[in-house]
Design brief:
Blueprint: H1 4-12, E1 15-20, E2 24-28, H2 40-52, E3 60-68, E4 78-87, E5 91-100, E6 103-113, H3 138-142, H4 148-155, E7 159-164, E8 179-186, H5 194-205, H6 211-216, E9 227-237, E10 247-257, E11 260-269, E12 274-285
């Protein structure tokens, strides 16, 4: 079995095809996932990596906005085309399209910036959360369940994810609030490369992003006929980050309607620094009988 963290690093080690038209072309592998669909965080992180390969090394990504256009096939590699839209004195803009079989599965635009000085403030880290060492791992919660999805989530993820106060894999416990939080950390050490850590954070940001919507309506992931899919994803990196150290990822959902839900999230380092913000809209479809009040 391939080590999950090695699998992530392999997925982010894109190959430069050498093709040059008006765009730079890269290719990357797809990680296996139960159900056969490419994990959205993977193609986000690969698109960030592809765009980063076309900028100067010191100019790092600070924001990206992407749309998921089609589900990806884990049995096919992915081609990434990067359009060098603009290079200014301090900022660069890139557009990345991810393709399989000639069709786009993700379209992303990203901005990169040279290190700079300026005003500095951030929203404080919420208080009252238990330490990650005091919480069960996903393997603790799901490892005993004989189901391919449960086993994949328990053993095949490159990140250790610990829910606060409890996960919603099998049931939703406690008050139905439109909030969710996880402690998250890579399962091993990563190289000292700021761009790699930022791409890996994009990878991790898609894991639990829509769970604040599900928790609000009492819907665990195991709900029969529940259909959830990411539609778009926006991310802002505020400060340097290491994903091989514990990060608190707090999420909330301000709205859900029309078969869609909006979720917003913030990543905090363990010492309380706000390192990144995320927003995502997702498709959330439930059987008509559950659309009003959840599952009780």
């Amino acid at each position: 079995m391939t080590d999950p963290l090695d699998s992530l690093l392999h997925a982010l080690d894109l190959s430069d095809t050498g093709a040059r038209t008006s765009e730079d072309i890269f290719t990357g592998p797809s990680q296996w996932m139960p159900g056969g669909r490419v994990y959205g965080g993977q193609v986000l992180a690969q698109s960030v990596t592809a765009a980063s390969r076309t900028t100067e090394e010191h100019r790092v990504i600070h924001s990206m906005h992407g749309y998921f256009l089609r589900p990806g096939d884990v049995n096919q590699p992915i081609t990434f085309s990067v359009d060098r839209i603009h290079d200014g004195r301090s900022f660069s803009t890139r557009r990345t399209q991810a393709y399989q079989n000639g069709l786009p599965i993700l379209s992303m635009i990203a901005s990169f910036q040279d290190p700079d000085e300026g005003l500095d403030h951030h929203a404080p880290m919420p208080e009252g959360y238990p330490e990650p060492e005091d919480l069960p791992t996903t393997a603790d919660v799901l490892g005993h369940i004989d189901h391919p999805v449960a086993q994949a989530w328990a053993d095949d993820r490159p990140f250790d994810i610990r829910h606060v106060p409890s996960p919603i894999y099998l049931s939703v416990e406690g008050e139905r609030t439109a909030t969710n939080a996880v402690w998250i950390k890579a399962i091993g050490d990563l190289p000292d490369n700021d761009g790699l850590h930022r791409a890996a954070l994009a990878y991790a940001s898609d894991y639990s992003m829509l769970e604040s919507i599900l928790r609000r309506h009492g819907l665990p992931w195991m709900t029969r006929d529940l259909k959830v899919a990411s539609l778009d994803h926006a991310m802002w990196w505020h400060r340097p980050v290491r994903v091989d150290e514990w990060l608190l990822y707090v999420q909330e959902s301000p709205s859900a309607s029309g078969g869609r839900g909006l979720a917003q999230g913030r990543f905090y380092s363990r010492d309380g620094q706000l390192v990144a913000s995320v927003a995502q809209e997702g498709m959330v479809r439930v059987p008509p009988a559950l659309s009003e009040g959840g599952v009780g």
